[in-house]
């Protein structure tokens, strides 16, 4: 099934031959398709079987990871593919027009929600008008994107050499297993358009779909993020180790010098300045 979906996605993204098509052909096709189309009705020919919705996740960037709030902020997009039989046509009747691009407000689309959202609970891409690609067989590709904030449990016990896992859960909120069947198009997160983050490295990124005990299909995107430790080692670990080495040197000074208390107070003040600097640099860690 995954190979079939992969081939379908590739075919949808390839330019198809369009010999002789004109603006009049495209206009006529649009008018014929949408003259009696009802975007509020789920396109299910057989209501005894759920409509299959294939999902893939495209990660664009890791914006921030707020450990104290246990919130991951990222920019990403979904590739959503399904079949709408009422949007199929014979290309030869319309000047060999094999595909049509329309606004997402013209057709029925499945609303996909991020369950462990840390802000407004809205469908992905709800506040933007993304274009929809329709092919002559009735397959529809909708690719909404957004800045997502997800709640993720954190463990900083190994800071700054830690790796943080994060699981994003997506769901078609009002559609149970009898209506919608979510399928993962790929086994991994797509990183073709990913912009690297200087603080976090994406170690692994998996995607999968499964049926939960409540009777709903869920789509999961699991990330494993490794912290880049060099900055924190230079700014926190090394100065702390240096001050720790200076502290015992107080007892090497002769008593007659009278500088033991002065050196001890200087080291103590250095600690205070270091911690204050670290807190101002990254208040989410300290």
TrEMBL record:
User: What is the recorded membrane topology of this protein?
Assistant: Multi-pass membrane protein
Which parts of the sequence belong to the Neurotransmitter-gated ion-channel ligand-binding domain?
Answer: 27-228
Q: Which Pfam families match?
A: Neur_chan_LBD
Record's keyword annotation contains Metal-binding: no
Assign the protein's first listed, main location to one coarse class. Answer: membrane
What InterPro entries does the entry give? Neur_chan_lig-bd, Neur_chan_lig-bd_sf, Neur_channel, Neuro-gated_channel_TM_sf, Neuro_actylchol_rec
Q: Which UniProt keywords apply?
A: Membrane, Signal, Transmembrane, Transmembrane helix
Quote the subcellular location field of this record.
Membrane
Q: Report whether Transmembrane helix shows up as a keyword of the record.
A: yes
| PANTHER family in UniProt | NEUROTRANSMITTER GATED ION CHANNEL
Q: Which residues form the signal peptide?
A: 1-20
GO CC aspect terms: membrane
Protein name, please?
A: CHRNA7
Q: Which Gene3D superfamilies match?
A: Neurotransmitter-gated ion-channel ligand-binding domain, Neurotransmitter-gated ion-channel transmembrane domain
Q: Which organism is it from?
A: Mytilus coruscus
Entry's transmembrane regions: 230-251, 263-285
């Amino acid at each position: 099934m995954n190979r079939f979906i992969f081939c379908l996605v590739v075919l949808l993204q390839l330019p198809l031959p369009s010999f002789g098509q004109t603006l009049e052909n495209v206009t006529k096709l649009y008018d014929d398709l949408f003259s009696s189309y009802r975007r509020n009705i789920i396109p299910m020919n057989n209501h005894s079987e759920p409509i299959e919705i294939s999902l893939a996740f495209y990660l664009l960037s890791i914006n921030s990871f707020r450990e104290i709030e246990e919130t991951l902020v990222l920019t990403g997009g979904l590739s959503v593919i399904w079949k709408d039989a009422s949007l199929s046509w014979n290309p030869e009747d319309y000047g060999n027009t094999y595909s049509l691009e329309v606004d997402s407000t013209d057709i029925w689309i499945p609303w996909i929600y991020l369950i462990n959202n840390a802000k407004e609970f809205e469908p992905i891409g709800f506040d933007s008008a993304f274009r929809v690609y329709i092919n002559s067989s009735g397959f529809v590709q909708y690719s909404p994107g957004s800045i997502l904030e997800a709640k993720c449990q954190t463990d900083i016990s190994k800071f700054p050499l830690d790796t943080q896992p994060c699981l994003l859960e997506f769901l078609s909120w009002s559609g149970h297993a009898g209506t919608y069947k979510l399928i993962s198009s790929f086994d991994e997160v797509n990183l073709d358009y990913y912009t690297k983050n200087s603080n976090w490295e994406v170690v692994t990124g998996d995607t999968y779909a499964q049926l939960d005990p409540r009777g709903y299909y869920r789509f999961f995107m699991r990330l494993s993020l490794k912290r880049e430790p060099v900055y924190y080692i230079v700014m926190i670990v090394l100065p702390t180790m240096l001050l720790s080495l200076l502290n015992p040197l107080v007892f090497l000074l002769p008593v007659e010098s009278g500088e033991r208390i002065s050196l001890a107070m200087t080291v103590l003040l250095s600690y205070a300045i270091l911690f204050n600097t670290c807190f101002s640099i990254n208040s989410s860690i300290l």
